[in-house]
Amino acid sequence: MHLARLVGAVALLSFAHGAVAVAEDDFFTQFPLVIHCQSNKTQHAFYISRVSEDGVATYVASDRIAGTISLDGHAKAIGSEGAGTCVGKTLAELRASGQAYDLKH
User: Fold this and answer.
1) 79 pLDDT exceeds 70?
2) How far is the C-alpha of 103 from the C-alpha of 78, rounded, in Å?
3) Does the pLDDT at position 18 exceed 70?
Protein backbone atom coordinates (compact mmCIF):
# COMPACT_ATOMS: atom_id res chain seq x y z
CA MET A 1 0.00 0.00 0.00
CA HIS A 2 2.81 2.41 0.85
CA LEU A 3 4.51 1.69 -2.49
CA ALA A 4 1.28 2.51 -4.34
CA ARG A 5 1.16 5.88 -2.56
CA LEU A 6 4.79 6.52 -3.47
CA VAL A 7 4.13 5.72 -7.12
CA GLY A 8 1.14 8.07 -7.09
CA ALA A 9 3.13 10.86 -5.47
CA VAL A 10 5.98 10.53 -7.96
CA ALA A 11 3.49 10.53 -10.84
CA LEU A 12 1.83 13.69 -9.53
CA LEU A 13 5.17 15.42 -9.13
CA SER A 14 6.18 14.51 -12.66
CA PHE A 15 3.05 16.17 -14.04
CA ALA A 16 3.24 19.23 -11.77
CA HIS A 17 5.87 20.81 -14.00
CA GLY A 18 3.65 20.76 -17.11
CA ALA A 19 3.10 18.47 -20.04
CA VAL A 20 6.01 17.61 -22.29
CA ALA A 21 5.67 16.34 -25.85
CA VAL A 22 7.19 12.86 -26.16
CA ALA A 23 8.25 11.14 -29.35
CA GLU A 24 6.95 7.61 -29.82
CA ASP A 25 10.48 6.21 -29.90
CA ASP A 26 11.44 8.06 -26.70
CA PHE A 27 13.41 5.71 -24.44
CA PHE A 28 11.89 7.26 -21.31
CA THR A 29 8.43 5.85 -22.07
CA GLN A 30 9.81 2.32 -22.40
CA PHE A 31 11.06 2.07 -18.81
CA PRO A 32 9.00 1.62 -15.62
CA LEU A 33 8.53 4.66 -13.39
CA VAL A 34 9.45 2.74 -10.22
CA ILE A 35 11.33 -0.48 -9.53
CA HIS A 36 10.88 -2.15 -6.13
CA CYS A 37 13.88 -4.02 -4.70
CA GLN A 38 14.98 -5.45 -1.38
CA SER A 39 18.53 -5.04 -0.15
CA ASN A 40 19.82 -6.00 3.30
CA LYS A 41 16.28 -6.72 4.54
CA THR A 42 15.12 -3.20 3.57
CA GLN A 43 12.52 -2.45 0.88
CA HIS A 44 13.53 0.29 -1.58
CA ALA A 45 11.57 2.14 -4.26
CA PHE A 46 13.94 3.16 -7.06
CA TYR A 47 12.48 5.84 -9.30
CA ILE A 48 13.65 6.64 -12.81
CA SER A 49 16.02 9.57 -12.89
CA ARG A 50 17.37 9.69 -16.44
CA VAL A 51 17.84 7.76 -19.67
CA SER A 52 21.07 8.28 -21.60
CA GLU A 53 21.37 8.52 -25.38
CA ASP A 54 22.50 4.90 -25.54
CA GLY A 55 19.33 3.71 -23.77
CA VAL A 56 20.64 3.09 -20.26
CA ALA A 57 18.21 4.14 -17.52
CA THR A 58 19.41 5.26 -14.10
CA TYR A 59 17.19 4.64 -11.06
CA VAL A 60 17.75 6.22 -7.64
CA ALA A 61 16.43 5.58 -4.12
CA SER A 62 16.99 7.05 -0.69
CA ASP A 63 20.27 6.42 1.11
CA ARG A 64 22.13 7.56 -2.04
CA ILE A 65 21.80 4.19 -3.75
CA ALA A 66 21.25 3.75 -7.47
CA GLY A 67 21.28 1.28 -10.31
CA THR A 68 21.15 1.09 -14.08
CA ILE A 69 19.37 -1.06 -16.64
CA SER A 70 18.97 -1.03 -20.42
CA LEU A 71 16.04 -2.27 -22.48
CA ASP A 72 17.86 -5.50 -23.32
CA GLY A 73 20.30 -5.73 -20.40
CA HIS A 74 20.39 -6.69 -16.75
CA ALA A 75 20.04 -4.46 -13.69
CA LYS A 76 23.32 -3.36 -12.11
CA ALA A 77 24.01 -1.62 -8.81
CA ILE A 78 26.06 1.60 -8.88
CA GLY A 79 28.78 1.98 -6.28
CA SER A 80 27.50 -0.81 -4.06
CA GLU A 81 28.87 -4.22 -3.35
CA GLY A 82 25.61 -5.54 -1.92
CA ALA A 83 23.35 -7.36 -4.36
CA GLY A 84 19.64 -6.75 -3.88
CA THR A 85 16.68 -8.56 -5.39
CA CYS A 86 16.88 -6.57 -8.65
CA VAL A 87 20.53 -7.02 -9.57
CA GLY A 88 20.98 -9.28 -12.58
CA LYS A 89 17.32 -9.21 -13.66
CA THR A 90 16.06 -7.94 -17.00
CA LEU A 91 13.14 -5.53 -17.37
CA ALA A 92 10.97 -8.47 -18.45
CA GLU A 93 11.92 -10.38 -15.29
CA LEU A 94 11.29 -7.34 -13.06
CA ARG A 95 7.86 -6.84 -14.64
CA ALA A 96 7.00 -10.56 -14.37
CA SER A 97 7.96 -10.63 -10.68
CA GLY A 98 5.83 -7.55 -9.94
CA GLN A 99 8.84 -5.39 -9.09
CA ALA A 100 8.39 -2.87 -11.95
CA TYR A 101 5.62 -0.26 -11.93
CA ASP A 102 4.76 1.42 -15.22
CA LEU A 103 2.98 4.76 -15.50
CA LYS A 104 -0.12 4.21 -17.58
CA HIS A 105 -1.27 7.19 -19.65
Assistant:
1) yes
2) 24
3) no
Name the CA dihedral angle for 66, 39, 55, 90, rounded to a multiple of 10 degrees: 180
Q: Considering only CA atoms, which of 64, 63, 84 is closest in space to residue 74? A: 84
CA proximity to 47, closest of 75, 27, 67:
67
- Region 19-44: mean pLDDT is 78
The rounded distance, in Å, linking the Cα atoms of 22 and 20 is: 6
pLDDT at 82: 62
Q: Where are the domains of the chain?
A: 2-101
Strand order in the sheet with 100-101: 76-78, 65-70, 56-61, 42-51, 34-39, 100-101
Are 26 and 4 in contact by the 8 Å Cβ rule? The answer is: no
Determine phi and psi for 102, rounding to 5 degrees: -90, 150
